[in-house]
Every structure is written in structure tokens, then in C-alpha cells.
Amino acid sequence: MSALILRAINPGDRESWEACFRGYREFYKQPHDPEVIERVWAWLDDPSHETRGIAAVEGGKVIGFAHFRTFARPLSGLTGLYLDDLFTSPAARGKGVATALIARLGVIAEVEGASVVRWITAESNTTARSIYDRVATATPWVTYDAVPAG
């Protein structure tokens, strides 16, 4: 792999980020939806929005990304970083991109005084979990989703 650059997603990344984001949505069997792509890009392009992104760039193109945000931890009175989305393009897999993105989140957490970097993944996502088990500790917490009232 040539020099991997990790940096904030910027406006010039739109095309290659979008290709990766489409791949991410396809992995999770989400239909093509231009409105979702536009909305998420608008979040990443808005410094006042809570969603931020790191691009893994090789040869001037985004080959992976991490979308994340700060979250409050009222029980401890601390904050954490929540990794919403992590994706590496198929051609870049097995080259340490995901591990590098997670490590960069650890650096950001340290700089920002966050107490944890947290994420969830599907139990069946064994490939990603093999990475996650090397770089983090699985928690005993169970996740629930409730639908909005109405």
C-alpha cells in the first residue's frame, strides 16, 4: 500500500467518499438513496453538525472512512466518541485501514478528553469483529431500538 493519509473529510473528497458510502450502504443491504447521501454529506460538510468524518486517503482518493460524534456520558460526567460508521473499500481490505482509522479515533479521543471510543456492530460481522477484538474490548451491554411514538 502506498502512503496512507488519515485526515478530516473535506469538500474535495465528495466523489470518492460517495463511492465508499455507497459500498457501505450496499454491505448493510440498504437501497440506493440519493437523499441519504446528500443529507450525510451535508452533515459532514457542516462544521456545526455533530457528525464528523475521517478519511483514509491513498493516491488522492478516499479508500475508507470513519463517521463519528461526541456523546455525553452523564453517569460518569464525561464524554466519549461514538463511531457510527466504519468502512474500507474492498480493494483496500486487509491492509490495516480500519485499524488505522480506529487508532486515529483514539488519538482524537485523547486530544478532546473523551473517556472512550465506542461502537456497535452486527454479531454476524465476523470479519470486522476480528479487527475489533484486537483493538478494543467487547462490552456486556445489550443494544435496544424503540420506534418513535405516533
Q: Ends: how far apart?
A: 51 Å
- Count helical runs: 4
Structural class: alpha+beta
The CATH architecture designation is 3-Layer(aba) Sandwich
How helix-rich are the residues, as a percent range? 25-40%
CATH topology name, in short, is Aminopeptidase
Shape from CA axes? Answer: globular
Number of domain units: 1
**Can you count the beta strands?**
5
How does this structure look, described?
Residues 4-150 form the N-acetyltransferase domain. It comes from Leucobacter albus. It is an enzyme of class 2 (transferase). Pfam families: Acetyltransf_1. The chain has 150 residues and is of the alpha+beta class. The chain has a single domain (5-135), classed as Gcn5-related N-acetyltransferase (GNAT) (Aminopeptidase, 3-Layer(aba) Sandwich). The chain is built from 4 helices and 5 strands; from the N terminus they run E-H-H-E-E-E-H-E-H. Strands 1-2-3-4-5 form a 5-stranded mixed sheet, sandwiched between helices.
